[in-house]
Write a structure and sequence with these properties.
single chain, 198 residues, alpha/beta, four-stranded parallel beta sheet, globular
């Protein structure tokens, strides 16, 4: 448990904190630890994997993962820029006021994503990045924003919006079955058709 601003820290530190929690759980259980992360939580998992190779991880489930973080940047205000920097700052404060981060938004986390996000995601996306069982569950709404590509077999699409999968009654049994080793990806529950549509 942590307070609202405990997660608004630079991405490397977030990865280090998750690694410390994982190590503590391993020391208590003497077994591998499964990780489930959603949305911006996936950024912390990318950082953890890049900065702490060899952790005792059983499997990883990424719900609504952030794909290719830090690839888009907004330069300082210039004439003709479609979205000026002050507007993005205002949006961050507005959304932050409605989120657990508070009115300041996740300023430290977001600024570090631009510096580290692409590198950490690149590590995870490489062949050596995830030497464990993994599954990504992507809402169809997110899949529509991805570049046109063949999705890996470790990716499952579900009819949903970003960030609402952790409590989704249709997704939780799939995650539980995957972690228990009873589900191999993809679990075809009409999801193959969603991949085609996406």
């Amino acid at each position: 448990p942590s307070d609202a601003d405990a997660d608004d820290i630079p991405l490397p530190e977030l990865g280090d904190r998750i690694a410390a929690q994982l190590t503590a759980l391993h020391e208590q259980t003497h077994g591998q630890v499964d990780v489930v992360a959603e949305s911006e939580g996936t950024l912390g998992v990318y950082a953890m994997l890049a900065r702490h190779p060899g952790l005792p991880i059983g499997s990883i489930v990424l719900l609504s993962p952030i794909v290719a973080p830090g690839q888009v940047t907004y330069p300082p205000d210039t004439s003709g820029l479609p979205v000026p920097e002050y507007a993005l700052s205002t949006l961050n404060r507005l959304v932050g006021g409605m989120s657990p981060y508070g009115p300041g938004g996740a300023a430290q986390l977001l600024s570090s994503v631009g510096e580290f996000g692409a590198r950490y995601f690149g590590h995870v996306a490489s062949a050596s990045g995830l030497p464990v069982r993994w599954m990504a569950v992507i809402p169809l709404a997110d899949a529509l924003t991805l570049p046109v590509c063949a999705l890996p077999t470790d990716v499952v699409l579900v009819p949903a919006f970003h960030g609402g999968l952790l409590g989704d009654a249709g997704v939780l049994p799939m995650v539980s079955s995957f972690i228990a080793g009873r589900l191999t990806v993809p679990a075809d529950a009409g999801e193959g058709d969603l991949k085609t549509r996406a």
